[in-house]
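Batch manifest, entry 17 of 40.
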Amino acid sequence: MEEKTGKKTKAQRWRLIKNILLCVFGVSFLITGIMFVKIYMNGQKEESSFKALAEAIHNNPVSAAPVKTDASAPEAEAEYAVDPKYFEPYLALKEQNPDFAGWLNVPNTNIDYPVMYTPEDPEFYLRRGFDKTYFDSGTPFIGEKCDIDSSAFIIYAHHMLNGSMFATLDNYMDEAFWKENPQFTFTTTDEIRTYEIFAAAKTEIYDQSFDGFKYYYSVGDISEFTYNQLALWLRNNSLYKTGIEPEFGEQILILSTCSYHNDDGRFIVAARRIS
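Output type: structure tokens
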């Protein structure tokens, strides 16, 4: 009787342990599920706010097509410009938030966002939305040491799991995608700027001991020597050859996001301004 009682006690203890473990796993699974739903819902809410801004931009009734500045001028002497009214939605965003630098649109990706500029605190929008409230996704922003008129500048954004921000920049890892989508635009409050992509590279943020070329330090108002170094490094490290060689005087814009090929990985797309 004592042996059976002992065995029964051990069995009861084992069942108790299993029940406790099941409860722990169940609670953990529930918490994980709740967190996932919360992250997803927050992501959807954040994307909705950006889509509202995009609608104000893209529902503009004024065409971006340049028109003659002097209708009576002969065609051979005619000058063309975009109707200033076209830029009114962008000016409205600038009035809402003076940190607004321009609007980035990359065709056939989800990249259709405002870009922010805060030189005193470059990463201010790392986890903030356009309205400056906390956003997991943040808002694309211009990196330190540069601005939209620098010889070379970088726009940073997160690589979000829901496909927002710069997640679809990864499309440019595929050469075929680049061939079909070689250009993108960055529109300021008074210019539509077109950029031609010449390189797409997997790289990383190097530690202080690394004495090689660090592309993210070669931005701003750089010398011709540094410009050529940057352009050469970008082309040499590109996943594929585009045959495009930027020349000093052609502004370089780099789009940068996290990549997971190593701990400090980055994926970058570099383009030269062509208009």
